[in-house]
Amino acid sequence: MTVAARPHPSETSGPTRRWAVACVVFVVGEVALRLYWIAGGRWAYTACDRTDLVDPGGGCGADRVESLPFWAGWGAVGGGIVLAAVALHTVRSSGRLASAASWAAAALLTVLAFPLHLIFELPAAVSGRPSDWRDLGARLALTAGGVLFAGLANASGPRRAPVAAGYRPVPRWASRWAYVAVALPVVGWAVPHGLWVLGVPFGIPERQLTEIQRGLSTGTGVAITLIPPLAGLLVLGLVQRWGQQFPRWVPGLRGRPVPRLLALIPAGAVALTLVTYGVLSGGIVVGRLVTGELPWSDVVQEWAVAATLLVFLGWGVALGVTTTGYARATRARQEQTAATSASS
């Protein structure tokens, strides 16, 4: 019996170094932008989440903001220095610890980007609704940074045996949760929003329906209604063959195994975001109910809006459980491949 040889360090240092360079370039760009803001510039800066000013296209009066919040300025600069140190350390000492630090950086950037916001706001912005493009650009940049650090973590981690081609069925419970994850955005999001676009006051009072229709164009309403459930259909890839093997119609990749992280990272990030949003938003509602700031009568009148928070929470849990099933199935495939290599 022969044991499969481990890759020589030079075989892995190249990809690790390239990912690290990309991560450092990202960090340098972010830090340079923050230093520009600290010096008084306001290009790409937005104040829409801190002021009541109008004009989201202009950053809600960002040019009039004199005092820069700590986390938008020096706090972000300090965080960038830490991220750069993580990337440089990963190049010098690849291994589990360095890979874990890069994974932590990827998770932090993904959470800060809050991808759920992009799922809803990008279609609305493209369809013509006034949007804060500065904020959307910043979130896209953070998402890209999270992807870069995830790539660095994968390149620097312990080397595993190559994944064998072939499909390994996921556990039956994962398939059930996948269909729950598909159904929730349809029933809990698309149906009520579609009715509101059509003028049906489903679960909300007439006055709120009037406000919604006044602020939405037909294109924006259709986009907001359809994009989330269509995006939710991607979860089926976690429980079907095309989530582990590229379909035949994909040029150059047909039949090849899908890299685990290509599915696990986006699915895990979205699940974490959905659960976080549901928990935090639900906590705010409960807090306002306890203090009396929000009367129960309003919740009853707007029950469809309140139920949306539970939809996000349930959607995130269902996606997270499905992702766990996918991870178990594909890990088992890796272990089987490793055992075959070791015995050959």
TrEMBL record:
Membrane spanning segments where? 20-39, 71-88, 100-120, 140-157, 177-198, 218-240, 261-284, 304-327
Q: Which residues form the signal peptide?
A: none
Q: Which UniProt keywords apply?
A: Membrane, Transmembrane, Transmembrane helix
Q: What is this protein called in UniProt?
A: Uncharacterized protein
